[in-house]
Amino acid sequence: MYARRKGCPLEEVTVNLRHSKIHATDCAKCETREGKLDRIERDIHFAGSLTNEQRFKLLEIANKCPVHRTLTLKIDIKRRAF
Fold first, then answer.
1. Into how many domains does the chain fold?
2. Per-residue pLDDT of the chain (82 residues; tens, 9 = 90+)
3. Domain assignment of residue 77, yes or no
4. CA geometry: angle at 33 spanning 23 and 44, to 5°?
5. pTM to 2 decimals?
6. Residue 77 and residue 31: Cα distance in Å, rounded?
């Protein structure tokens, strides 16, 4: 949507995700040091004759996606049963 609006020559976007569990002690940037954590690795490939600036901006927009933001922030789940 962003690329269309800005007239970027984006032809295709491919996103690959890999999910794994890692030990918290193996995560240098994580606050938690105990147990296991979920790790999601994301690779994004932009096809088209884009400039480096356009690629950077598209990646910046991808990082603002509601799903990306939800997964990278702390989540508070309130459970109810009926």
1. 1
2. 889 999 999 999 999 999 999 887 877 777 777 778 888 999 999 999 999 999 999 999 999 989 888 888 877 788 899 9
3. no
4. 55
5. 0.72
6. 19
